[in-house]
Write a structure and sequence with these properties.
Layout lengths: L1 E6 L2 E10 L4 E11 L10 E11 L5 E3 L4 E2 L3 H11 L5 E10 L4 E2 L3 E7 L3 E2 L1
Parallel strand pairs: 3-10
Antiparallel strand pairs: 1-2, 2-3, 4-5, 4-6, 4-7, 7-8, 7-9
């Protein structure tokens, strides 16, 4: 499953793929295109993202909504904790990024509970 999301003014694609027969999955983040049409400006940032997952009728883990960029680590963790009772799994993570160049560093999980895909 692919979900497109605007992060720091850049359209980014999140790939959720099932591994281990739908019990577990993986999240991969890739740049799709520059959203503004302006020439890229090399700017380093930290993306802080929140995602929640639910199980479909077939038992497959799937995103409950489009991943959301959060303003701070604290707000991501607090919101993830609040949401944890309503979903099969919730994860908040951060990663250094230069989205205008399509470069993403290693993800660091800030909070995770329940069934969530592995980070790639």
């Amino acid at each position: 499953m692919v979900i497109e999301s605007m992060l720091n003014g850049v359209l980014v694609m999140f790939y959720f793929r099932s591994i281990d027969h739908g019990k577990q999955g993986a999240i991969t983040m890739r740049l799709k295109q520059q959203s503004t049409g302006q020439p890229p400006v090399a700017k380093s940032t930290t993306l802080i993202v929140l995602a929640a997952f639910e199980r479909g009728e077939d038992g497959e883990l799937r995103p409950a909504f489009e991943p959301q960029q959060m303003p701070s680590e604290h707000s991501a963790v607090q919101r993830a904790k609040l949401m944890s009772r309503g979903y099969a799994g919730v994860i908040a993570w951060k990663r250094p990024a230069r989205p205008d160049e399509g470069e993403f560093g290693e993800p660091e999980v800030l909070f995770s509970t329940g069934d969530v895909p592995d980070m790639e």
